[in-house]
Amino acid sequence: MKKILLIIIFILSFNIRTFAESGFVAILNVPVGLSIGIPIGVHVGETLNKLDVNADVNTKLGYMFDFGKLGFTPLLELGYSYDTYGYSYFQQVRMDGSSIRVSLNESINTHSIQIGLIPKFNIDNFAIGLGFGLKIPLYAIYSYKGVALDNKNEYYIESGEEGMDTKDIANKYRRVVIPYLKLSFDYYFAITEKIAIGVGTYVGYDFGFTSRDSNEERLDSLDISLQLGLRFGPGIEKEELPKIKFNF
Fold first, then answer.
1. Which residues, at least 6 apart from 48, have a Cβ–Cβ distance to it below 8 Å?
2. N or C end: fewer C-beta atoms under 10 angstroms in the chain?
3. Do the beta carbons of residue 28 and residue 61 sit within 8 Å?
4. How many CA atoms lie within 13 A of 137 on its CB side?
5. Per-residue pLDDT of the chain (248 residues; tens, 9 = 90+)
6. Full-model pTM
7. Dihedrals φ, ψ of 235, to 5°?
8. Helix (H) or strand (E) holding 116
């Protein structure tokens, strides 16, 4: 994964130098945030969402069409994504005359290459983007932990972890790619005429892995992240800081 990340960074740096001309735009983003697991079609016991983390490194490459105060920038999104898809469920069962509480925590951590499209609408230095794309997992880790607890506080624990490459993922799940939707909000502070720092947030939804045992069972996630960015290209106005006068 380190080698893949270095290759991505090299490609990003090359494209940033190339696209920082004319109306072309290049944006380097580093989002970090929370992932909320959303199990679809799981009807065992009481199902709970699981909170975890996600992180990306991505670049957006495109061309800005300037209409004065307004602008439109269709962008190609490329990068690396680390995501977690998890959930928990609880169930009360009767066994040998005793009431037993059974719980199971499951999660899938993925390292993926992502590719997508995200058109952005610019209003002065503010940008709103609505996009979609695919995450292609290169490696994933499936982990689980099951606990059984009876009314005498006697319990049983079983846990495990399994690493999966692309072939293992294809054997375990019906779909080897993860479609996603994304809504982003960014504000840019110009450093020079063609370089700006961006601060923003995005909300994304991943349509996760589908079980081979059932078409109805799927593990999705809702992502809420803060992101920092570096933008190369025209269309950002440099704001002058207010002047402070001192009277002596």
1. 87, 88, 89, 90
2. C
3. no
4. 29
5. 555 555 555 555 555 554 444 588 999 999 999 998 888 876 565 666 677 888 889 999 999 888 777 888 999 999 999 999 988 877 776 666 667 777 788 889 999 999 999 999 988 889 999 999 999 999 999 998 888 777 666 677 788 889 999 999 988 888 889 999 999 999 999 888 888 999 999 999 999 888 777 667 788 999 999 999 999 987 676 655 444 454 54
6. 0.79
7. 100, 0
8. strand 98-117
